[in-house]
Every structure is written in C-alpha cells, then in structure tokens.
C-alpha cells in the first residue's frame, strides 16, 4: 500500500493544510491520491477540506468515519460524550480503504504523536497498527526544534519509516529562528525538510513524497 501517515508536533501545526496540499499535488501529477481524517474532534471543517482535496471522489463519511464533537483529544472527547472509542469501526474503515483504493492513501492523525485515543492507546499505537511510513508536520518558528526532535525520538522507537518533515511557515515571524530552524533540524535529525510557504505558494512535491 502506497501512502503515509501525517502526524504533527502539536495540535494546530497545519496537518490538515499539509495533507490537503500533498493530496492535491499528487492528484495534479496524475496520481489517485486520497486523503483521510479518520478521527476528528470538534468542528468537521478539516474533513471538508480533505473532501475538497479529494475532488469529492469519496463521501465525507468515508473521509471521516469517527467524529467526536468536543474539541479535545479523542480520549477526553469520549469521556465527555460518555462513550468508548470505537476501535472496530476505525479498523474496519482502514481495511475497506486498502481493499478499494490503490493509493497513495494519505492518512491524517489527530493532534500530536502521543495524543491519547483511549486510556491504553495513543496516536502512536494507532499509527503502528496501520504500518504506514510517517511524515511529520512542524511549525517553522521558535520552539519547533525541541518539539520536532521529541516527536522524532518517539517515532524512531516504533521503527516506522520517517519519510521527512513538512515545515509550515503559515503565520510565522520572519526572524532569525524561522530562517535557521530548517537547516538545524535537517542537520540534527538527518531527515529531509520541505518548506510550506504561506498559502502553499510554489509548493512542489519533494522526491520523498512521490510514492513511486
């Protein structure tokens, strides 16, 4: 199965924007890429964005099978809604997707890498079950080195391949930190970084995201 799991160094780093941008670029290049947000907490806007990136080839219910309305972690949202997280529904959704579609399938996680899905399992455990290589989305500004290296450290313990890092420059100050963070992170992590300029301007697929 060709595809990847998109995780973030934190909530609000631009995972959905990056997922949509990647999906649209792949589709423009003639690939049948489809984006999924299997678990969503809060407003369903992110699922709508991905449905548009998919050119509405699949329904929003297939993009997002599990919708928890409190804008919290999945575990906290389930506590508020007095329900158990539906792992069987999530797993069946993925089995159906890999049976029906060739890919690349782009799966966006929920929150950061260690966000709890329930009392026992985190986003990391979910990603390990799926077995997809991982792409990390991070901010460009001050603090991103620490957050990104912590995410990489945890990710490498799983032995899942890390394809690279998408660094989001949306609402980033043009300061010394944002001008140097990409080079420093590449040096310290040994991973390739692709910059996402504000609005996705001039975005082109790096070789490590071609899924060939």
Largest sheet properties: 6 strands, parallel
Low-pLDDT runs of 5+ residues are: none
Q: Gyration radius, to the nearest Å?
A: 16 Å
**Portion of residues in helices?**
40-55%
CATH superfamily: P-loop containing nucleotide triphosphate hydrolases
* CATH topology heading: Rossmann fold
Q: Order of SSEs, N→C?
A: EHEEHHEHHEHEHEHE
What key attributes describe this structure?
212 residues; 6-stranded parallel β-sheet; two-stranded parallel sheet
Q: Any overview of this molecule?
A:
With 212 residues, this protein is α/β, with parallel strands linked by helices. The protein has one domain: Rossmann fold (3-Layer(aba) Sandwich). It contains 8 helices and 8 strands. It has helices at 15-28, 45-53, 60-63, 74-81, 87-100, 123-130, 144-158, 176-189; strands at 3-8, 34-36, 39-41, 66-68, 105-112, 134-139, 162-168, 193-196.
Fold blueprint:
Layout: E1 3-8, H1 15-28, E2 34-36, E3 39-41, H2 45-53, H3 60-63, E4 66-68, H4 74-81, H5 87-100, E5 105-112, H6 123-130, E6 134-139, H7 144-158, E7 162-168, H8 176-189, E8 193-196
Parallel strand pairs: 1-5, 1-6, 2-5, 3-4, 6-7, 7-8
Helix pairs in contact: 1-2, 7-8
Q: Could you write a compact summary of the structure shown?
A:
By secondary structure, this protein is an alpha/beta fold.
């Amino acid at each position: 199965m060709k595809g990847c799991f998109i995780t973030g160094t934190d909530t609000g780093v631009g995972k959905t924007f990056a997922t949509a941008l990647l999906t649209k670029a792949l589709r423009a290049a003639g690939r049948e890429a489809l984006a999924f947000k299997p678990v969503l907490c809060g407003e369903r806007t992110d699922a709508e964005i991905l449905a548009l990136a998919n050119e509405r080839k699949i329904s929003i219910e297939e993009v997002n099978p599990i919708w928890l309305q409190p804008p919290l972690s999945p575990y906290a949202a389930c506590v508020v809604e007095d329900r158990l997280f539906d792992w069987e529904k999530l797993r069946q959704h993925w089995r159906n997707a890999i049976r029906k579609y060739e890919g690349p399938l782009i799966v966006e996680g929920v929150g950061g890498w260690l966000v709890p899905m329930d009392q026992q399992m985190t986003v990391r455990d979910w990603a390990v079950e799926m077995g997809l290589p991982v792409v990390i989305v991070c901010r460009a500004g001050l603090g991103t080195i620490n957050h990104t290296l912590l995410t990489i450290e945890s990710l490498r313990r799983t032995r899942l391949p890390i394809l690279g890092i998408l660094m989001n420059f949306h609402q980033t100050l043009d300061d010394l930190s944002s001008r140097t963070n990409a080079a420093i992170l590449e040096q310290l992590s040994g991973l390739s970084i692709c910059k996402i300029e504000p609005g996705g301007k001039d975005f082109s697929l790096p070789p490590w995201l071609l899924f060939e």
